[in-house]
């Protein structure tokens, strides 16, 4: 599978993760911030 690093912005990825964490009965109320995605990208590189 091709990398998505350049396809989605940190804001886009944060929105997707926030949706996943709060969907299908998982009402965590947690919102992922773009700065958290940026930090995770730095660790993965």
TrEMBL record:
GO molecular function: electron transfer activity; heme binding
Record's signal peptide: none
InterPro entries per the UniProt record, alphabetical: Cyt_c-like_dom_sf
Region (Disordered): 25-45
Protein name, entry field: Cytochrome c, mono- and diheme variants
């Amino acid at each position: 599978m091709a990398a998505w690093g350049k396809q989605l912005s940190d804001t886009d990825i944060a929105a997707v993760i926030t949706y996943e964490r709060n969907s299908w009965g998982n009402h965590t109320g947690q919102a992922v911030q773009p700065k958290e995605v940026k930090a995770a990208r730095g660790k993965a590189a």
